[in-house]
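Whiteboard transcription, Tuesday session. T.W. wrote the structure tokens on the left side:
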């Protein structure tokens, strides 16, 4: 598949990469829309050094579920979905206190887990079990759905 990959500071390019592997407890999403966020630019320019390289950036995305892992029953092929920009564990002290945005084990999409600047993506399994993959109404366009994270201002 084709993806926008950051190889290091100032080195962003479109390249062929391996398709993501569908996990038994996740979904394969065909990314149809992904916004460019200021944090994506900070990764590219080397200002935010938390990202692992090479990395497919992009955390404000929406798409269509193309395949469903055999242990997933909450999503179906064809569902329109968004993926939260960060996936919390649900088990650490911060998550248990209800402040999942301060999770001690956060999996940030586009930093340590491949993001949405690709044809396909498989979110972390925790994204499904902890509620960070969300169905969107079929009458909502995907280019509008990507604004969900920015409009909410948190995850």
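and on the right, the sequence the group agreed on:
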């Amino acid at each position: 598949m084709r993806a926008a990959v950051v190889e290091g500071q100032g080195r962003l390019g479109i390249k062929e990469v391996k398709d993501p592997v569908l996990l038994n407890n996740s979904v394969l999403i065909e990314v149809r829309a992904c916004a460019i966020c200021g944090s994506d630019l900070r990764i590219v320019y080397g200002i935010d050094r938390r990202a692992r390289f090479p990395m497919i950036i992009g955390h404000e995305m929406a798409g269509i579920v193309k395949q469903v892992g055999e242990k997933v029953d909450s999503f179906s092929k064809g569902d329109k979905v968004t993926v939260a920009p960060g996936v919390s564990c649900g088990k650490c002290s911060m998550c248990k206190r209800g402040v999942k945005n301060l999770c001690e084990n956060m999996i940030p999409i586009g930093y340590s887990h491949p993001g949405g600047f690709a044809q396909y993506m498989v979110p972390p399994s925790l994204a499904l079990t902890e509620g960070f993959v969300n169905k969107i109404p079929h009458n909502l366009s995907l280019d509008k759905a990507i604004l969900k994270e920015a409009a909410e201002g948190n995850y």
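Someone added at the bottom: Strands lie at 2-8, 11-16, 27-35, 55-56, 60-68, 80-83, 86-87, 107-108, 120-121, 133-135.
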